[in-house]
Amino acid sequence: MTIKLVYDYYKIMKSIFLADSHLRNPEDQSYKELIHFFRQLPDDLDNLFILGDFFEFWHGYQDVVFSHYIPILTVLKELSEKGVKIYFFAGNHEVSSGPALAEIATFYADDATIEIDGQKLYLAHGDRLNPADYLYRFWRGLLRHRFTLKLIDLAPTGLTLKIADFLSTDTQTVQNRKKFIPPQVFRTCANLFAGPDDIQAIVIGHFHQERQETFPAISENKSLYILGDWVNSRSYLLLENNHFSFHKA
Fold it and tell me: Domains of the chain (ranges plus CATH)?
């Protein structure tokens, strides 16, 4: 299913894509700079696509929000109230949505195909594009199982955060490990481009590196954009006038 974004017929949309900010503490420099970045976004921005691992850990409680995420949620709400459409794609650090996110963003647990100005984009965090990574896919499914989510609901939030911190790997170590992208990821993307949905671009995060790949055997006009991360490189992708470009904040 393709979701078509339609605004003013005469206006070309402007969209920003970012991923892997791994927000922890409002006093962290990357956290402060992300708030500043959001507050300085241009008034003509239409869409903000957050492609996963925005938080170091997120679970959508029904009536509780982690206090260290209130500042960034407040800024996102301000953007939403200004008319920016926010689309949030879960990464491997977000296990569920919840009302706090649903109030300000359209939430996708996995992937989606979205049409912007006649261009079909496949968007995802990117952690599920390697079908041979069986152990990770099992672990991901286990974390999102309704039984696991119920246990998280019942556990004290402080204990949950301690466990999440214990399970989280140091972000710099993760970045170094993910500089190698398994070839299965590119095969999956090639299959998406060759499929019946006529996808023109794929945008993913997860691998913590800024990269554009083309698939000339399929089409010269189709590209895979792998986002650089925010937590280390302050990187984002801009789509304007049907043209993609990488930028640093």
Answer: 10-248 (3.60.21.10)
